[in-house]
From TrEMBL:
It comes from Lacihabitans soyangensis. GO terms for molecular function: histidinol dehydrogenase activity; NAD binding; zinc ion binding. This is Histidinol dehydrogenase. Belongs to the histidinol dehydrogenase family. The keyword Protease does not apply. Pfam families: Histidinol_dh (PF00815). The gene is hisD. GO terms for cellular component: cytosol. Keywords: Amino-acid biosynthesis, Histidine biosynthesis, Metal-binding, NAD, Oxidoreductase, Zinc. HAMAP family: HisD (MF_01024). NAD(+) binds at Y124, Q181, N204. Pathway: Amino-acid biosynthesis; L-histidine biosynthesis; L-histidine from 5-phospho-alpha-D-ribose 1-diphosphate: step 9/9. The active site is at E317 (proton acceptor), H318 (proton acceptor). Catalyzes the sequential NAD-dependent oxidations of L-histidinol to L-histidinaldehyde and then to L-histidine.
Length: 420
């Protein structure tokens, strides 16, 4: 992890570059996969499962009995942990249900909205290097609350915890398919896999690029949620043991993950880097984490104002504010997927069980995108009703505007009513 001391503003972009492949580079690999699945359906899925996942499957659909009986294969403590995480995530997302007000914009002109769950959704659960069953909860729970009628789940992993979490969320359409081919299968549909309207879920660069590509063919997506990243802001009083553990928690996701430490105290940076070396040795995924650390940076700044500038430019997926006054700093952050305040809020808690969603925008997309929430699974339909009194109040305004746009049929739709 290289240290950059007091960088100038014009150096920020170079220092904060992500280690991911360029969009064109990944797209070149992914586009042919997508097109082959579109054209050949299940036949292409069988070929790619063998090529990329080394599995020979003739049936991708997971038997319902495997989903119903998965709990029995899990250790009881894990079942209890999943159950509690389910409760917390459910509670946080259910609180996002809002009652829409009917707004009277002019006397007799009433406008309102209703939320409707997207009928058919697809959720991708990463499973290439680790079976991320927590992601089933993060996507399955809001889909359940939104009352999406059909939820299709694809994952390259057949870990029973994925199936147990799916069972808890009422998901029965589960397919053992991974990577960009899974995204294409859900976008276009195949003989085995139903076509959906919107695809959700994190994944590696191939998965993320595939989502962006199928979006061009007309399937909606949540957002680009690629290789995990975290930025930590520390000050003189931060605990290097805590910070090192937080940085490593995201570094272990994959070699293309990135972690960033910003601090106004060189001693804290140095102590954190030493601590990373110590903690790394005990991690089973230390080789992966080491590679991610090669892409990672520590930045020494003059003060917290500059730190905030850098963090807003970086737009981290996760931002931990391990500082004396985290609320004050959080108020100044405008670009981040999810913010963790104080010394006792490790990002891992948001990854699994505090309640917030862990499917978040990476690679700087937090400048414009939000993470997954209940809203991601619903459409808001606007409704309006205008009374006879209302058309008298609003009609002349619409007539005037329609005439100015030279759209006389528009004007007439009002005029015939005003004259009736
Ligand atoms: N942003 C978020 O919200 C978030 C949340 C959780 C995880 N993640 C990220 O998800 C990712 C999970 O990655 P993963 O690889 O473990 O699992 P994954 O399920 O995303 O990808 C595995 C699939 O990639 C495909 N693949 C592998 N090599 C390929 C190649 N050379 N060409 C084409 N396809 C190939 C395979 O089909 C395989 O099934 C990590 O990067 C992690 O950081 C992000
Ligand atoms: N940190 C990931 C989001 O970037 C989510 C996750 C799942 N399991 C562990 N972590
Ligand atoms: Zn994580």
């Amino acid at each position: 992890m290289n240290i950059f001391e007091f960088p100038k503003k014009e150096q920020y972009a170079e220092i904060l570059k992500r280690p991911t492949m360029s969009f064109d580079e990944v797209e070149q690999k992914v586009r042919p996969i997508i097109l082959e699945v579109k054209e050949k359906g299940d036949e292409a899925l069988i070929k790619f499962a063998l090529e990329f996942d080394n599995i020979l499957l003739d049936n991708f659909k997971v038997d319902i009995s495997e989903i119903q009986n998965a709990k029995q294969l899990l250790d009881i403590e894990l079942v209890e942990a999943i159950d509690q995480a389910f409760e917390n995530i459910y509670t946080f997302h259910q609180a996002q249900l809002i009652t829409e007000n009917v707004v009277e914009t002019m006397p007799g002109v009433k406008c309102w909205r209703k939320s409707v769950g997207i009928e058919k959704v697809g959720i991708y659960i990463p499973g290439g290097s680790a079976p991320l069953f927590s992601t089933v909860l993060m996507l399955g729970i809001p889909a359940l609350i939104a009352r999406c009628k059909q939820v299709v789940l694809c994952s390259p992993s057949n870990h029973p915890a994925i199936y147990y979490a799916a069972h808890k969320c009422g998901i029965t359409d589960v397919f053992r398919i991974g990577g960009s081919q899974a995204i294409a299968a859900m976008a276009f549909g195949t003989a085995s896999v139903p076509k959906v309207y919107k695809i959700f879920g994190p994944g590696n660069q191939y998965v993320t690029s595939a989502k962006q590509l199928v979006n061009q063919f007309g399937t909606a997506i949540d957002m680009p949620a690629g290789p995990s990243e975290v930025a930590v802001l520390a000050d003189h009083r931060s605990n290097p043991v805590f910070i090192a553990s937080d940085l490593l928690s995201q570094a272990e996701h994959g070699p293309d993950s990135q972690v960033i430490l910003v601090a106004d105290d060189l001693k804290v940076i140095q102590a954190t880097i030493s601590e990373i070396e110590i903690q790394l040795e005990n991690l089973p995924r230390k080789d992966i984490a080491k590679l991610a650390l090669e892409n990672s940076k520590a930045i020494l700044v003059e003060n917290m104002e500059i730190a905030v500038d850098i963090l807003n430019e970086y737009a981290a997926e996760h931002l931990i504010l391990s500082v004396e006054n985290p609320h004050e700093i959080a108020d100044k952050i405008i670009n981040a997927g999810s913010i963790f305040l104080g010394d006792y809020t490790p990002e891992s808690c948001g990854d699994y069980a505090s309640g917030t969603n862990h499917t978040l925008p990476t690679n700087g997309y937090a400048r414009a995108y939000s993470g997954v929430s209940l809203d991601s699974f619903v459409k808001k339909i606007t409704l309006q009703q205008i009374s006879k009194e209302g058309i008298k109040n609003l009609g002349p305004i619409v007539e005037k505007m329609a005439e100015a746009e030279q759209l006389f049929a528009h004007k007439n739709a009002v005029t015939v009513r005003l004259e009736s």
